Amino acid sequence: MDARDAPSPFLRKTADTSSDEALKQIRTANTISISPELFEKLYLTPQTKVKGDLRGTFANPTPVALIGFLLSCTPLACAYWFTEGITLTPFYGAYAAYAPADATNPMDGFNSEGFHATYGFFLLFMGLLSLLYLICALRTNMVFVTIFFGLFMCFVLLTGSYWKIAIDQAAFGAKLQIASGAFAFLACLAGWWIFFAQMLASVDFPFQIPVGDISHLIRSGTERAQQKERFSA
Among 153, 151, 169, which residue's Cα sits nearest to residue 72? Predict the structure, then answer.
């Protein structure tokens, strides 16, 4: 090859520099910045400043927890969770302790007033836990609020159902169970919606589905403290 056709050292250096820059751009965890709205959609939490770079080093773990919730919550609309399944399975005899002393069948404990009244408290505190999650979800998006509102209503209605059965109002208790299943189904639909939204956002799909961002409605404690410092200064 003619020496005149060889690229000059300047051009080679420029080409090498361009290649280095291209390689750096491929490292998306170090170079790509996302909007607060997209961050909140992917991580289900408003973006905050944290030390280190764990978010860039490891993959987003949010879908793992979300799909675990969905796989357990979706059957809830029809049967309920693993805990209740064991409790109501005759093989485990969880309600045998509530059977009368002279009973010959463990199922007598399941039909007792004490079993239904006691088990209602478990559901009541599950509803309380869902209420706490619901309050925290007000800093995220409407889909997340819908999920925990549906779960809260589901557990409250199930609590009422067991307590009604405990006082021999089985017909009304059955209606409450049907209503609780409807709210659980609502939570499932909202959960699958936000899971789909996360999957679309994670692969930068050409279109996105809304999740109803409401993180701007309630200012964070950090923002309030910073505003207070500016006013005091």
Answer: 151
